[in-house]
Amino acid sequence: MEKENDREKIIVRTSIYGIAANLLLAGFKAAVGLLSNSIAVVLDAVNNLSDALSSLITIIGAKLANRKPDKEHPLGHGRIEYLSAMIIAAIVLYAGITSFTESVKKIINPVTPEYSAVTLVILAAAVAVKIILGRYVKKRGEEVDSGSLIASGQDALSDAALSFSVFLCAIIYLLTNISLEAWVGVVISGFIIKAGYEMLSDTLNDILGKRMDKDFLAEIRKTICEDENVNGAFDLILHSYGPDRLIGSVHVEVPGDMTAPQIDQLERSIASRVYEKHKVVLTGIGIYAADLDDQASSIRADISRMLMKKEGVLQLHGFYIDTQKKILTFDVILDLELPDREETYKEIVREVQEAYPDYTLNVTMDLDF
Q: Do residue 195 and residue 344 come from a single domain?
């Protein structure tokens, strides 16, 4: 709980810095834009206002997400951060679409801008502030694994590039008397819309359940397999209930002669180590019993050689061979990119059955997590 509170404080404090900086920038840019009839500067000011609102929503989301679990939400409220990130993405998209509309209007009905030395100084300062703010916010977001802060930081860095384009536009006008205002506004709008779309897409992936980082999963499997009785860790599935709340399950292969008390102690040890090292709560640890006699090992090796040559077969696991009752059980992981996974599965069952006609097969088509 102390770690969660520290995380919340960092998110709130960083967001407050962002709100203050963006409100100041928005005020200065709005004044400059209105006085100089610059649509590009005004749109840049609107973008800063949307960033300030985004930071406010980030604060609210962090506060709500850190509420204690209750009867209706026993796993906490961490997923609220995903909802707040979606709201931020919607605001950014709205700002981009509105900016695009206004820029097109100015292309149709152009207004001559009136820049001054003060305008250039303010725009240059805005670029510097946005770069510093963006780097700081993104870094803090990465430190506490806050998608909202990371998105805000990246957005600020993009804004710096856009503000720099407005700055260049002002210099070009002063030197050549050529106004690129409205066209630059269209470009700015395009970047804003793109940023909003990417933020929305990333958040939707979090909500839908995206694939976890392979290196992180490999580290967890390595921790599980540290025990000498674990021959392998499979079907590791993690569910996110917020950026720092991961709950999962896994299957482990153990010697078939282990007793129930030994398995119970093993499961407790695995769950404890995984939480201590990776802060992942393993709520379910399934058991694959490995039959390691010579005949079973020979059959297992033969089937592995036969099937791992097939296109799309990623892994075989969970082998259990009852040579007395003639029952052969295993799971096969097929690539999700296969054009017809069901047909490949049927071919596997058919080939194994032909190679071992005396055995009853229990073959499970598993997912590639």
A: no
Give 52-72 as a DSSP string: HHHHHHHHHHHHHHTSPP-SS
Distance CA 117, CA 110 (A): 23
pLDDT of residue 244: 67
d(CA 131, CA 263): 55
pTM reported for the whole predicted model: 0.63
The SS3 call for residue 283 is: strand
Domain range spanning residue 310? 214-366
Mean pLDDT of 195-222: 83
Ramachandran bin of 214, using left for φ above 0, alpha for ψ from -120 to 50, beta for the remaining angles: alpha
For residues 172 and 229, membership in a common domain is answered with no
Rounded (5°) CA angle 127-130-132? 110
Q: Alpha-carbon distance 270 to 255, whole Å?
A: 16
Between CA 43 and CA 25 the distance in angstroms is 12
